[in-house]
Design goal:
Layout lengths: L19 H13 L2 H30 L1 E2 L4 E2 L1 H50 L2 H6 L2 H43 L1 H4 L2 H42 L1 H6 L3 H27 L1 H25 L5 H42 L21 E8 L8 E8 L4 E5 L6 H8 L7 E6 L2 E2 L5 H6 L1 E4 L8 E2 H5 L8 H10 L3 H6 L7 E2 L8 H14 L4 E5 L7 H14 L4 E5 L11 E6 L2 E6 L1 H7 L2 H10 L1
Helix pairs in contact: 1-11, 2-3, 2-5, 2-11, 3-5, 5-7, 5-11, 7-9, 7-10, 7-11, 10-11, 15-17
């Protein structure tokens, strides 16, 4: 027996904090895959904004073509400058339109890649991750959070690029007109920066909380919808509505607080900018009276100051949306940073199953460090035998199956198949050696043929029909309008639970696996059909090692070997008659079901 280092518990959840800089760098890595497009976007941003920045200068020159005090106007100069303004603004518009289309295309590709990465990551995550996270919250990260990032990339990023160019260009143009008037910004810019930094510090945790609360609400809704029949059956609609009201209120409050605090940023910066405009007007008037600046230049300076302060004000408003996008990106990256299922050991070989001799030797396991479910368990399932696993709820029956499939690894002990330690073989080959039928049936949107043939890509219609007949579902399928081409809705919602279970049994029968796992696989069929399926399965599963988890003991009377588990220990084992004669724990369970 050997002990494996436990590391972290399978139920521990990593919560690695990422700084804003780290999140931005991660987003930048996605954008970096489209360097050419981003370079083109940068060129369009610079060119479009520079052309737009020439406008106020030309406006001032056009104004100066009117000779104050003389009543004369140089119409040739006036029309010349106005025509240039129209041309430059038209070209700038076309460039801005092209930039918007380009950024939408870039964001579409980034979001596609991000969703692909998230979905691929989900396929690589260990089973315990899905045991400890709400499905709705995971879906929220793939939909709402990534959509939020998409909106920010396609719109906000353009505004940030344009604002940087506009602010820098406007300031340079103002310096060429009047360095004295630029002294006004020595006061207003530092104040704006301090306000913005303070607001970002305050709002970032609020937006992170908002995304988390929306994820919690989505998870709750998904959970309640899946259990709607139970809710109605127990008349718990009002209770459930009240619980949703709490979740909904928490999400709304988090949304309100983040937007409320973020909403202060724009008006505050706008107020500072209006103060700067007032100071420019007063100081400009003084300079004009002293003859140190023309009226046209004052006009141009005021227009540039609006261009200078406008993007700062827009950036303050965009900052709210960016904080939301960064919080959403943080949640997505948190998922992408989750530890994946442990890699196969170096040199791991494919499992070669010849007979299906399964052994567990001194196996101990617990989902958490402080609660061991299985302790020092040793069992053997002989080749071609049917091994039934019975016991009260929480005894560790399903945990054994999780260990066999390496959804979890034991803390101590060894599990072998045909003498091969399953830790030294690839998970892919191990799981391919088993066929599984679980109590919670899973069907996907597709034809009945596709669902049955899911585990065998080379299955022919003849093989599928043979498996369906063995599972006692063929006659039902033939009565359907399109037979085996009938399209099932998502999760088989257009057929009964019993029919869904029969389809998954047919799917398992079609695999060429040497071992079969049935976790209460006939719980949704009637007793007569169950007896027929048991016989059909026995005929079909010759020379296969089978594990059956059963609560209804009548279904495993003919099992070759019965393991009776209680509190993680095999307290009894043998066939049905032997265990009844012992008049022990199995005898009590059996009589309790038939009294």
């Amino acid at each position: 027996m050997r002990a494996r280092p436990r590391g972290r518990s399978v139920y521990d959840i990593t919560k690695m904090k990422r700084t804003r800089k780290q999140v931005i760098i991660r987003l930048g890595a996605y954008l970096g895959k489209f360097r050419f497009h981003m370079l083109l976007a940068l060129i369009l941003t610079i060119a479009g904004n520079m052309l737009s920045l020439v406008g106020p200068k030309l406006s001032g020159l056009a104004l100066d073509s009117m000779k104050l005090g003389t009543g004369k106007v140089e119409f040739e100069s006036l029309f010349y400058y106005v025509s240039l303004m129209l041309i430059f603004y038209a070209i700038s518009y076309l460039m801005s339109y092209g930039l918007a289309r380009l950024m939408i295309n870039i964001s579409r590709k980034v979001v596609f890649q991000m969703r692909q990465d998230v979905f691929n990551k989900l396929m690589r995550l260990p089973v315990w991750y899905f045991d400890t996270h709400q499905t709705g919250d995971i879906i929220s990260k793939m939909s709402y959070d990534i959509d939020t990032i998409n909106t920010s990339l396609s719109h906000d990023l353009i505004q940030v690029f344009a604002s940087m160019i506009t602010v820098a260009g406007s300031f340079l143009m103002m310096l060429t007109i009047s360095p004295v008037l630029c002294l006004v910004f020595a006061f207003t810019i530092p104040v704006s920066i301090l306000i913005s930094r303070w607001m970002v510090k305050k709002t970032r945790p609020l937006f992170r909380k908002r995304s988390a609360k929306l994820g919690e609400m989505n998870g709750f809704v998904e959970e309640m919808i899946s259990g709607l029949k139970t809710i109605k059956g127990y008349n718990r609609e009002e209770y459930t509505i009240n619980k949703f009201d709490v979740k909904n209120q928490e999400a709304v409050d988090a949304y309100f607080k983040s937007e409320f605090m973020g909403g202060f940023n724009g008006p505050s910066i706008n107020f500072i900018n209006n103060i700067s405009l007032s100071l420019i007007s007063a100081l400009g008037a003084i300079l004009f009276i002293k003859g140190r600046i023309s009226l046209g230049n004052i006009s141009s300076f005021v227009l540039y100051s609006r261009k200078f302060s406008g993007p700062i004000n827009e950036a303050a408003n965009i900052m709210t949306e960016l904080q939301s996008a960064l919080a959403a990106a943080d949640r997505v990256f948190q998922l992408l940073d989750e530890p994946e299922e442990k890699a196969d050991l170096p040199g791991a070989k494919s499992l070669n199953v010849v007979s299906g001799d399964v052994k567990m030797k001194n196996v101990s396991f617990g989902y958490t460090r402080d609660r061991e479910i299985i302790h020092n368990l040793s069992i053997r399932a002989r080749p071609g035998s049917l091994t039934a696993i019975v016991g009260p709820t929480g005894a560790g029956k399903t945990t054994l199956i999780n260990l066999l499939m390496r959804f979890y690894d034991p803390d101590k002990g060894e599990i072998s198949i045909d003498g091969q330690d399953i830790e030294n073989v690839t998970r892919r080959s191990l799981r391919k050696s088993f066929a599984m039928v679980l109590q919670d049936t899973w069907l996907f949107q597709g034809t009945i043929f596709e669902n049955i043939a899911y585990g065998n890509k080379d299955a022919t219609i003849e093989k599928v029909i043979e498996a369906a007949k063995s599972a006692k579902i063929h006659s039902f399928i033939k009565r359907l309008p399109d037979g085996y081409n009938t399209v099932l809705r998502e999760d088989g919602l257009n057929i009964s639970k019993g029919q869904k279970q029969l389809l998954t049994i047919a799917r398992a029968m079609l695999t060429d696996a040497k071992m079969l796992i049935l976790d209460e696989a006939t719980s949704n069929v009637d007793t007569r059909t169950e007896m027929q399926i048991q016989q059909a399965m026995r005929n079909l599963m010759k020379d296969k090692t089978c594990f059956v988890i059963a609560h209804r003991l009548s279904t495993i009377i003919n099992a070759d070997h019965i393991l009776v588990i209680n509190d993680g220990d095999v307290v009894e084992q043998g066939n049905h008659n032997e265990l009844i004669q012992k008049r022990g724990f199995y005898y009590q369970l059996y009589n309790a079901q038939f009294e």
